[in-house]
Task: structure prediction
Amino acid sequence: MPGHRLLVLVVNDDEAVRDATHFQLRIQNVEVHGHAGGASVFKDRDLTRAGCLILKDRMPCMDGFEVIKCLRALNFQIPVILLTGEASAGLRARADAAGVCLVLENPILDNALVDGVLDILRGQRT
Result:
């Protein structure tokens, strides 16, 4: 759609990471809504039009996998990119079982996050 920007939701308790991700995606003309915790994403009035969710795996109160579980329980199938400090085989298996599209380990190298988001928004990654 010409002139229509796609929406990405970023859920990360680290404000600096949210801000950096917001900046990187805005350069690509992607609309971004940032959330400091998992529960607040469910209050986002634009949740249903989001094309991608960038989600940190470990957060206080509600971790990334709990957010995914709640979304799936609501029958909401949004593509998810999971950010983690340690992408072990167990975590990758759990992410795969939860339907996560992409797991990225910090520090994120090059343009892996932006490229992953753009691939999802273009329908090139499911």
